[in-house]
């Protein structure tokens, strides 16, 4: 559904087909959206000026201790700051905002995936690495995974979509994959 490097028009970050599939049975296919909230971006959110740079690695220690001790709810409430290249400005978000956006993004992409093979005028799978056949019963199982500061992981199951297709991962690169 997208060309190489067109992340905003999206497809799934991780797609895990079922190598032990049973014929004429619902087989789970795991579909994952990955996000990363870096330690540096958490540190930047605590600075009065996001252009500030740490003067040593020890500047990260307080936020690293906070992250390691945090409950999941506290992790979700953390703010992080990054520079948005498209908007040319600093942006501050909460981890829970990213979780919500990733959940929406994954749901939209799973909906497209559940439409089966795509064609020029029909949305669906257009990636040669995913073999999509009619007459299947695969169930798309969505997960959002957020790495926080390289030390903690938030994993949320976002839903399941039953399909009329079977999906298998192949070794063929996409047509527009750079050499």
Characterization of the model:
The protein has helices spanning 39-45, 61-69, 72-77, 95-113, and strands at residues 14-16, 28-37, 79-84, 89-94, 130-134, 139-148, 152-162, 165-169. The protein is an alpha+beta fold. Residues 1-9 have low confidence and may be disordered. Strand 6 and strand 7 (152-162) form a beta hairpin. It is built from four helices and eight strands; from the N terminus they run E-E-H-H-H-E-E-H-E-E-E-E. The strands form three sheets. It has a four-stranded mixed β-sheet. The chain is elongated.
Keywords for this structure?
179 residues; two-stranded antiparallel ribbon; four-stranded mixed β-sheet; elongated; disordered N terminus; 8 strands; alpha+beta
Structural class: alpha+beta
Report the strand count: 8
The residue fraction in helices comes out at 10-25%
N- to C-terminal separation? 20 Å
Q: In one word, what is the shape? A: elongated
Helix count, DSSP H or I runs of 4 or more residues: 4
Which residue ranges are poorly predicted, with pLDDT under 50 across at least 5 consecutive positions? 1-9
Instruction: Give, in spatial order, the strands making up the sheet with the most strands.
Output: 1-2-6-7
- How much strand content do the residues show? 25-35%
Q: What is the overall pLDDT average? A: 88
Q: What oligomeric arrangement do these chains adopt?
A: single chain
Order of helices and strands: EEHHHEEHEEEE
Instruction: Report the sheet with the most strands, covering strand number, pairing sense and barrel closure.
Output: 4 strands, mixed
Give Rg in angstroms: 19 Å
